[in-house]
Automatic annotation (TrEMBL):
Domain called Alpha-N-acetylglucosaminidase tim-barrel: residue spans: 130-469
Annotated InterPro entries: GH, Hex-like_dom2, NAGLU, NAGLU_C, NAGLU_N, NAGLU_tim-barrel
Keywords: Hydrolase, Signal
Matching Pfam families: NAGLU (PF05089), NAGLU_C (PF12972), NAGLU_N (PF12971)
Keyword S-adenosyl-L-methionine in annotation: no
Record keyword Hydrolase present: yes
Domain Alpha-N-acetylglucosaminidase N-terminal: 23-115
One MF annotation (Gene Ontology) recorded for this entry: hydrolase activity
Location of the Alpha-N-acetylglucosaminidase C-terminal domain: 477-735
Organism domain of life: Eukaryota
Secretion signal span: 1-19
Protein name: Alpha-N-acetylglucosaminidase
Length: 754
């Protein structure tokens, strides 16, 4: 219906004036290209006309880049995000520079005089929306981010054309105020909120409460202040934030203040004790639900302005509905939507579609249809097909393109911030384009990684696919990506291109979904055992989908590239990638060493043939590999435990020892035991310097020591597990080895020795 109207998306601009300001994009240039501030001109080819209230956005973004007679670079576009995307296109394709996670902005390492554009360059998106974030990214990756970290992320998003980012930070402030208003005490609210590293699952209604201490109210206030910056910046950059709202999950004490409230308990999550799960859910049919919704959304709009109509709302993420009844499900979604509309007449409900995959037994066709069908106007909802590259839901007959509700094709790719090198280049280029042709309600492409941990090229690729009608040619794409990745180091050696091309067709070209559907994890990060370590597949796979020798060859080429061009060692992207690829090579080698050890151990048929000295000899290479790995990782702050722990400490609102230890406990617990008693131990494990030496080495020592004490007939997994657990629990609050930063030069010397 808006087809002929020229549209842009910043609602702030709608409120302020007809003419939209390009100041936010100019400010981005000021931040990242301070020497070229006056060399760019941005021109919006459309003015704001009507506020948009439909998820079925019918306009794609477009831009044109040219050089003016006065020698400036002119970017014209039909929206702010189109201008940001056009700027990025110029920087990546003409200047060959970019901005990256972990490495930071390299946008300023191009020539001092910017190249002119001979023939104008045009670009147009093939989908109106580009989405970013998974609810859990806010805990796995961003739990302790500062404003500076956010600024980098938001510039990264804007330049890559993302116009629909999730914005969860600080939501507890709004929630706490809404709860206080109905008479709950701070103590009652406190028993509901989870710790700083676990908020995502509290927001999902999977868990409640906090083990190891309570979330300080001051932290909530600080996050709220941070969110003001985040949402404002998002709007300035032309993005529409997706904000939280009231989901229905409430403190148990709700029945004290609302004795007649219709509440039910959610299900138990991952074996957590009832104290921390079975979260109380206020039925949306209860009039108090709507009251809380109005209270929440009004408070939020007062705090951040009327900047969006999109609300993230997940009631059944890994949490099954109270009743298996289509009438009930229809009533839940209908009343939920009604509450949103009462609070914001133009509200759009954004839902992560994960439930339809993870709880597919419950979500039979009738239930999916009933739940989605409770919302009568299709454009009131927007569903994320969360894991579309491996487990697309839209295309199966149960989910049936979400029965007409608009949806977004998302790449999940990474679970729990796992660090393996991995990608499905074919699926993320070919499948979204095919989906676009076959589902008329597909309105966007997006990234829903649980953690942002490396493999950045895979995320760039899908976001760029959103601007290409046909599947991107990955050969040319990787080559261009390598050029801008290592910008600032002059002419790049061929070896770099060769190494990345070898990885492109192997590491990044998984097509064997039976072996792995997402980023792999290394066994060195898992609690050791002689059983069940190898061969796991699926979304937390150990199984490699490529020949490890190929990666070793690519690694050698990468290393060799610095021989003719030693200045590469000064390039932060090269430093990062060398650590990352070395990490993977060592991890692959570790798996082979483990196999040798356990095969020998297992082959001893009785106590006569068992030889503890042999086991000790075979154990040594494993421990040596871990030690080497730890040294390599410790050369780069992006790969150290101390970076994570210092960020947690810095975000602690007080320097009191109890506050500080609560924050480091949270940070440690998430990446190790994940839960008060190891409920999902090692789910979010990391190969980080300091964590390898301080946590994994001791575990493998306990394991190899045990193998030297007991032959395979006497092996008792419970005994071994008990010893490991004692260590794991002690480490939570008293870990050693916070990781050290030796500097990369030390690392190079070490590598040469190795
Ligand atoms: C750019 O989008 C506008 C609508 O906002 C449209 O009128 C125009 O034709 C598009 N230009 C190109 C080159 O696609
Ligand atoms: C946008 O509005 C401003 C001020 O109202 C006007 O000067 C400008 O020409 C308009 N631009 C377009 C592309 O319509
Ligand atoms: C918000 O941004 C300003 C700079 O614009 C900064 O001074 C302030 O510290 C930021 N707030 C938070 C909570 O980080
Ligand atoms: C918690 O949820 C589980 C189902 O997941 C259920 O069996 C159990 O009864 C629930 N407990 C409470 C206290 O609600
Ligand atoms: C947001 O919009 C509502 C309804 O249009 C209005 O009452 C309210 O004042 C606005 N709030 C802000 C902060 O602009
Ligand atoms: C839900 O009910 C349907 C029939 O009404 C039944 O076929 C299905 O097995 C039930 N699902 C569960 C998880 O109990
Ligand atoms: C709730 O259901 C009624 C009856 O089907 C329907 O008329 C109404 O539009 C629905 N409300 C929403 C917000 O979808
Ligand atoms: C990826 O692997 C598939 C299946 O082995 C193969 O057909 C395809 O050519 C490969 N693509 C690339 C870019 O290597
Ligand atoms: C892409 O993923 C689908 C499942 O979503 C799978 O059936 C197909 O084999 C994959 N294609 C490739 C090339 O990996
Ligand atoms: C070693 O033997 C045990 C049984 O004693 C078996 O469960 C396990 O899978 C074996 N491990 C390997 C790596 O072969
Ligand atoms: C123990 O194993 C060795 C070597 O496999 C074999 O020669 C010997 O007969 C076995 N002894 C017993 C008691 O089974
Ligand atoms: C165990 O193996 C070592 C060599 O690996 C050998 O020196 C030693 O004699 C063996 N011990 C027994 C009891 O066979």
């Amino acid at each position: 219906m808006w087809l002929f109207i020229c549209l842009t998306w910043s609602l702030t601009a709608i409120l302020t004036a007809a003419a939209q300001s390009t100041q936010g994009i100019q400010d981005l240039v000021k931040r990242r290209l301070p020497n070229h501030v006056n060399e760019f001109e941005f021109l919006l080819t459309c003015n704001e006309t009507t506020p948009i209230s439909t998820a079925i956005r019918e306009v794609n973004d477009n831009y044109t880049i040219s050089s003016t007679a006065g020698g400036k670079i002119l970017v014209e576009g039909n929206s702010l995000i189109a201008l940001a995307s056009g700027l990025h296109r110029y920087l990546t394709d003409v200047v060959n520079v970019d901005i990256f996670w972990y490495i930071g902005s390299r946008l300023d390492v191009g020539p001092s005089s910017l190249p002119t554009v001979e023939t104008p360059i045009n670009g147009a998106s093939v989908v109106p929306w580009r989405y970013h974030f998974n609810t859990v990214t806010f805990s796995y990756t961003a739990a302790f981010w500062t404003w500076e970290d956010w600024e980098l992320e938001l510039d990264w998003l804007a330049l890559r054309g993302v116009n629909l980012p999730l914005a969860w930070v600080g939501q507890e402030k709004i929630l706490v105020d809404a709860f206080r208003e109905i008479g709950l005490t701070d103590a009652e609210i406190s028993t509901y909120l989870s710790g700083p590293a676990f908020q995502a699952w509290n927001r999902f209604g999977n868990i409640q409460g906090s083990w190891g201490g309570d979330l300080p109210m001051q932290w909530i206030e600080n996050q709220f202040e941070l969110q003001k910056n985040i949402t404002q910046r998002m709007v300035e950059l032309g993005m529409t934030p997706v904000l939280p709202c009231f989901t229905g999950f409430v403190p148990r004490a709700i029945t004290r203040v609302l004795p007649n409230a219709a509440v039910v308990n959610g299900s138990q999550w991952n074996g957590f004790p009832t104290e921390y799960t079975n979260v109380t859910f206020l039925e949306p049919s209860d009039p108090n639900f709507e009251k809380l919704q109005i209270s929440y959304i009004t408070k939020q709009a007062n705090a951040y302005g009327n900047i969006t109509h999109f609300y993230t709302l997940d009631q059944y993420n890994e949490n099954n509905p109270y009743l298996n009844s289509t009438d009930y499900l229809t009533s839940v979604s209908n009343n939920t939507m009604k509450s949103l509309k009462t609070a914001d007449p133009e509200a759009i409900w954004l839902m992560q579609g994960w439930l339809f995959y993870s709880s597919s037994t419950f979500w039979i066709k009738e239930n999916v249809e009933a739940y989605l069908g409770g919302v009568s106007d299709n454009s009131d909802m927007l569903v994320l097909d969360l894991f579309a590259e491996s487990q697309p839901q839209w295309s199966n007959s149960r989910v049936n393109s979400y029965y007409g509700k608009p949806w977004i094709w998302c790449q999940l790719h990474d679970y729990g911030g796992s660090m393996g090198l991995y990608g499905q280049i074919m699926n993320i280029t070919i499948n979204p384009i095919e989906a676009l042709a076959s589902s008329s309600s597909l309105v966007g492409f997006g990234l829903t990684m649980e953690g942002q941990e490396g493999n950045e090229v895979m995320y760039d690729l899908l976001l760029d696919q959103a601007w290409s009608k046909s599947p991107i040619d990955t050969d040319a794409y990787f080559s261009n990506w390598v050029t801008r990745r290592y910008a600032g180091s002059g002419e790049l050696p061929n070896e770099l291109y060769q190494a990345w091309d070898m990885m492109r067709t192997t590491v990044y070209n998984n097509t064997n979904l039976a072996a792995s559907t997402a980023v792999t994890k290394s066994i060195l990060e898992l609690s050791p055992s002689i059983t069940g370590m190898l061969g796991s597949t699926g979304h937390h796979a150990i199984t490699l989908t490529y020949d490890p020798d190929i990666l070793t060859s690519a690694w050698k080429l990468m290393f060799a590239a610095a021989t003719p061009n030693p200045s590469l060692w000064d390039n932060p992207a090269y430093q990062y990638d060398m650590v990352d690829i070395t990490r993977q090579v060592l991890s692959n080698n570790f798996a082979a060493q483990y196999t040798t050890l356990v095969n020998t151990y297992n082959s001893t048929t009785n106590s006569t043939s068992y030889n503890a000295t042999t086991i000790s000899t075979l154990s040594k290479p494993l421990l040596d590999t871990l030690t080497t790995l730890d040294q390599v990782l410790s050369t780069n702050p992006s790969f150290t435990l101390s970076t994570w722990l210092s960020a947690a400490l810095a975000s602690s609102p007080s320097t009191s020892p109890s506050n500080q230890s609560f924050f480091t406990y949270n940070a440690r617990n998430q990446i190790t035991l994940w839960g008060p008693d190891g409920e999902i131990s090692d789910y979010a494990s990391k190969s980080w310097g300091g964590l390898v030496s301080g946590y994994y080495v001791p575990r493998w020592e306990i394991f190899t020591q045990y193998l030297q004490e007991a032959d395979v007939q006497a092996y008792d997994g419970t005994v071994l597990g008990g010893r490991l657990k004692v260590f794991e629990v002690a480490w939570q609050s008293d870990g050693t080895g916070n990781g050290k930063y030796d500097g990369w030069r030390g690392w190079v010397l070490m590598m040469r020795r190795w």
